[in-house]
Every structure is written in C-alpha cells, then in structure tokens.
Write a structure and sequence with these properties.
6-stranded mixed β-sheet; Tyrosyl-Transfer RNA Synthetase; alpha/beta; 18 helices; Structural Genomics Hypothetical 15.5 Kd Protein In mrcA-pckA Intergenic Region, Chain A; 3 domains; Rossmann fold
Length: 400
C-alpha cells in the first residue's frame, strides 16, 4: 500500500479549490489527516462518445486524492447508461443499446488517462453486479429509498408540474447509483454539483446495507464555450479531451472573457497566487485575449505537449490575427465538378442541415477562394484545389 500523505496544505486545497460542497467536511478532513487509505469513487455513464473538459473537473479532483495516496475507483455505468441519469432532464433519455454503450466508452480509459494514473486506479463496470443479480436483489434495493423522497427532487417536481411522465426506471436510477457505492465500499464519492441528490442517495443506500456512509465532494459545473449552459455533448458547447491541438486551442480562444478565470481555476494547475495576479491584471484593463492564449497553451500542453501547444498558438495567430490560411488544410473529395453550395456544406459537415447551410451563406459566412458567396441557392463550378471556408476557423480543400 502506498504511503498516505497528510500534508495540511494539500488537504486544504483538495477540500476548497474548485469545490462546491462537502458532506461531511469535518469527517472527511479528519479521515484525510488520519493516514488511512480512502476509497474514492467517481462514476461516468457512457451516454455519448468522448470525455470533455467538463469531465476533467471531477477527474482532476480525483487525481488530487490519488496524489495523496488514496485509491481511486472509476466506475463506468455500462448498465445504468441503459436507463440514463434523469438529473436536469425535462424528459426521459433515449434508451441505449449494448452496442451503442460499448461504442461510446471505447476511448474513455484513454481520455481519462490524460488526467489520472489509470494504472493505479481501480476500474469497474457496474454491469459486473447488475447483470448477475436478479429481481429479488433489486427489490431489496428498492426498500433503501422512498418514493416521496425521490419525487421531491427539483427536476422531477418540474416535470410533474408540466404534466410530463416520469418512468419507474428513472425513479430507480439514484438507487442504482447508490448501490454502486455499496459494491465498491466507497469512503468518498465525487460528482458535479447537479449530482448532489444522487450522491446523498448513496449514503442512504450504504446505511441501509449497514455500511459506513460515504463522504461527498461536489465540484462546480464547467460552463461550455457558449458561455451559458454546462459543457455538454448534446448542446455542442464542449471541448473534447481528444480534440486535436489546433481545434482545442481554437475552442478555448472562443470562450467568453468572463469564463477565463473559471477555466484557469477548474482546468489547470496554476497556483492561487497566479490566479489572483491574472484577476488583478484583467481588472486593470489588460487584454483578456492574452490570458486566453495563456489558458489555451496550458490546457493543450496538458493533453498533448508543450510543442503542440506552441504550434497551435502559432497557427491560431497566423489564421486569426494575420488573416492567413492554416498551414495544414484537410481535403474533401467530390465526384462532380459542380455542386449546390448548401448541399456541399452539409456533405462536408460544415452545417448540420440544408437550412443551416443556407443561413450561413445568407449571412456571408461562406467563402470560396476568399470570395464571399451570399446566394443561398448558389451552384458552384469546381476544378479542384479550391479552398472553402466557413466562419473564421473552418477550412477545407476541394479535390475532384
């Protein structure tokens, strides 16, 4: 067993920086100071491919526990993903098949390894127990919680008021997540601030099974690149941990200025003093763009390398500041020498639909060889080698 670190400053940072709530704080602090190795759980349901920077916030907190010598337990909810966490949802999630779940989580370990030491972590899948245990075991579990308590949660109350259905599987979800804590004997569970209800249910389920109740640590929800909603694949405001360096840097540069300090605090290792210095400089009117570049360099370095971060920075300055084209422009092969521009944008995946493509064209956001095209019905004649540009960051070279 590794030597457990009980450094008071490290423990203070773990319990305060980037932390929303701790239950029970004194109990957890005493446990961290005791020198006992804690079992620290974090669960992810593979409801979509890729982990993003929003996932990195609890993962980074997990790493702090790991750096102190505690045992990290990463649970992939390959069973509970079939139900889907109802937290914050205004309707039931679409059920996922085993094939979809397997596809979604195939790269999760690689992505998580960019934050925590996977070799030292305990990796579990909750299908291990839920597929083995029968209906009688689930019926025992249902006695751990009450319907009144579960229906009191804000998102369920809202749906009831709106006349929307809540399925029995959704009602069961918090109990199933709590049962994960029973099976892995969790001392601590980490989750986003919106997960507090589910994490507290874990304490109740553990108590029902005569186990010590886990302490809880919740972290803030990272706001996405739109500056409004929490980072999410479904909203499209995310920065994937597997994003290529240039794209990752570009997306970080696109976040609203008011999120800069938040991203520094939650997504990087800069010290509290450095954070205060950046805040002071921004308050004095220094250009937020300079700090965004610093943020981009730090985050790209963490998930790629310093060399790639520098390259991405240089490319960004070249394209956006000097109005030049990127060095490496991907090619797209087409079979015909003429095409309806709106259709081409959809085929290249620069637009999700023809209506969106036409809107982009009409707004002047589409260029062909640096010439703006505003005719939403335009048909273009191509020879090959043309550069198609949408917005400021998306380029493609046409190949016949």
């Amino acid at each position: 067993m590794p030597k457990i670190k009980t450094d008071k400053n490290l423990i203070k940072e773990l319990l305060t920086r980037g932390v929303e709530k701790v239950v029970e704080k004194k109990h957890l602090k005493d446990a961290l100071l005791s020198g006992k190795q804690l079992r620290v759980k974090f669960g992810i349901d593979p409801t979509a491919p890729d982990l993003h920077l929003g996932h990195s916030v609890p993962l980074r907190k997990l790493k702090q526990f790991q750096d102190l010598g505690h045992k990290v337990i990463l649970i992939f909810g390959d069973f509970t993903a079939k139900i889907g966490d109802p937290t914050g949802r205004n309707k039931e999630r679409k059920p996922l098949s085993d094939k979809e779940i397997k596809h979604n989580m195939k790269d999760y370990l690689d992505h998580a390894s960019g934050v925590i030491d996977i070799k030292k972590a305990e990796i579990r899948y909750n299908s291990e127990w839920f597929k083995k245990e029968g209906l009688s075991d689930i019926l025992v579990l249902t006695r751990a919680g009450s319907l009144q308590q579960i229906l009191k949660r804000a998102d369920f109350k809202k749906r009831i008021d709106q006349g929307s259905d809540i399925t029995m599987t959704e009602v069961l979800y918090p109990l199933l997540q709590g049962y994960d804590s029973v099976k892995v004997k969790a001392d601590v569970e980490i989750g986003g601030a919106d997960q507090l209800f589910n994490l507290l249910m874990g304490r109740r389920v553990q108590r029902y099974y005569n186990l010590p109740e886990q302490d809880i640590l919740t972290v803030p929800l990272l706001v996405g690149t739109d500056g409004e909603k929490k980072m999410s694949k479904s909203v499209g405001n995310y920065i994937s941990l597997s994003e290529n360096p240039s794209s990752m840097f570009g997306k970080i540069m696109s976040i609203p200025d008011e999120l800069i300090l938040n991203y520094f605090e939650l997504c990087t290792d800069i010290s509290e003093q450095e954070l205060k210095d950046i805040a002071n400089k921004m308050n004095k009117g220094e250009n937020p763009r300079d700090f965004k570049i610093m943020l981009g360099e730090k985050i790209v370095s963490m998930y790629h390398s310093e060399k790639e971060a520098q390259k991405a920075k240089d490319e960004f300055i070249k394209v956006f500041s000097k109005k030049q084209r990127p060095t490496d422009i991907p090619e797209y092969k087409i079979l015909t020498k003429s095409a309806i521009l709106a259709n081409l944008l959809v085929d290249i995946k620069f637009a999700k639909s023809k209506s969106e493509a036409r809107r982009l064209i009409k707004q002047g956001g589409v260029k062909l060889n640096d010439e703006v095209i505003k005719d939403e019905k335009a048909e273009v004649n191509l020879k090959g080698g043309e550069i198609l540009q949408v917005g400021k960051r998306r380029f493609i070279k046409i190949k016949i």
